[in-house]
Fold this protein.
Amino acid sequence: LNGKLDPDFVREVARLDDATFRAWAVRLCRGQRLARVMAADESPDVQLQLAVEYGRAGDATALFNILSRFPHDLHLAQIVWRNLQSIEPKKIDSDDLVKIVSTQQVDVSPVWQALLPRMIDQWTSMPEGRKTADALLSALLKSPENVRSKTFADCLVMVANKIFSGELPLSEAAGFIALAGEAAQGNPTKEV
């Protein structure tokens, strides 16, 4: 062996029926195009390896897509969350985030129930993350089901706690306060 991995071998492994082998193919091809091709694989084992790969690449959109495709897999969600935490909020495409989250019914998904308040909590703690948190709440506000959800309420409680503790200065909380007001009125808009 010369220490080089034969790309044909990796492609062959990626086509096997056994998800364990396909997951290993993702690990073997680190950062290569094959990992992107395998994004449609339905195996949680493959998606777990892809989540690690997307985290390394800083691809938050791909991580959010995994969450949207596997809304009931809490183990996979933990891996996605750990990889999302390594991505700076300013590098997260807020438009992509809004598109993905606005199509989810958050209260029927244990993944979204668990992660959305955590995301809001983390991102409102950092000045550079507040735009992303605002976009996330705006995405939830676009769906009447989500506005009435416990998950949305939990997210707003996170923001209120940040304001009351002084961690989120009132001068930077105007967008969040406007979102809460719209939610209270039951009047979601397309743009906040």
Summary: The mean pLDDT is 84. The CA atoms of residues 15 and 88 lie 34 Å apart. The radius of gyration is 19 Å. Residues 150-165 form the longest helix (16 residues).
